[in-house]
Amino acid sequence: MKKPLILAALLWSSVVLADGKPNVVILATGGTIAGAGAGVANSATYQAAKVPVDKLIAGVPEIRNVAEVRGEQVFQIASESFTNEHLLTLGKRVAALARQPDVDGIVITHGTDTLEETAYFLNLVLKTDKPVVVVGSMRPGTAMSADGMLNLYNAVAVAAAADARGKGVLVTMNDEIHTGRDVSKSVNIKTDAFRSPWGPLGMIVEGKAYWFRAPAKRHTTGTEFDIDTLDRLAPVDIAYGYGNASPTAYKAFAEGGARALIHAGTGNGSVSGAVVPTLQALRDKGVQIIRASRVTGGGFVLRNAEQPDDKYDWVVAHDLNPQKARILAAVALTRTQDTRELQRMFMEY
User: Residues 32, 112, 118, 339: which is the catalytic one?
Assistant: First the structure.
């Protein structure tokens, strides 16, 4: 009875070795890439999170030319509804798959609204050098010139590429490869919506990745955080700076239990004179104050410029935008309450 089983196993092994294609798992979470509109002219009005992962894969048969793929439906939601619990669930599933020897790369389909936040979170907490690629689309698959098919194909091609290992969590959109740490959605309709202030890492042309730079900040295998030890994230909220700003939002967030407040300030993370006393008082009560900038397109918040951060015991977000600063603070505060340690993390990650 054992000989037929052994022979079958050997035959299967020889097929796998002869094929030689990497194994890529596609984890689907919903979003526009799984959306559908009423007609082909509907590129901006549609229902997100409608198409299951198996149909997404079947819609791009060319994927089979670059990898052996299988799909899992983790969630089916629009990404603006992503919560900390969704991040933890997804992160733990990715980590479990990355430990499997028969998985060479992982692709995550995701809505674009919070795609950058999920990519950065995974970049912080996953301890793997295997390619993890987050991808979405700006148009539903039912629209003319839909971008999801090519984006998904490119994502699988990058996840299957040996030279994508060790570069942290990546985002592939509009033929470009970005680091999940830098990339941000900067346009709400156009297909070239995702950009990095310091430029993309490379491009994908006809299924081949071309690299031009590498991430400089700590990530994945170099991180001090670990998804396997995370069961919760610290509550962190964002308050927006503007002309005629008041301290109302900051007080409300603190009363609601926020352990840190991201100040999305004007310019160099500037803080209105009407708001400074409230932030000082909240810091005295143990709430961390982190100055970020609402300005997009490059630059970073300088420590002790605009505000005396050392004197007030505040933190600056460096070049992280407010939403990514929230992600890092939510992770970092599970390890430390020390302001100097938090500032170190903001400079290193």
Answer: 32
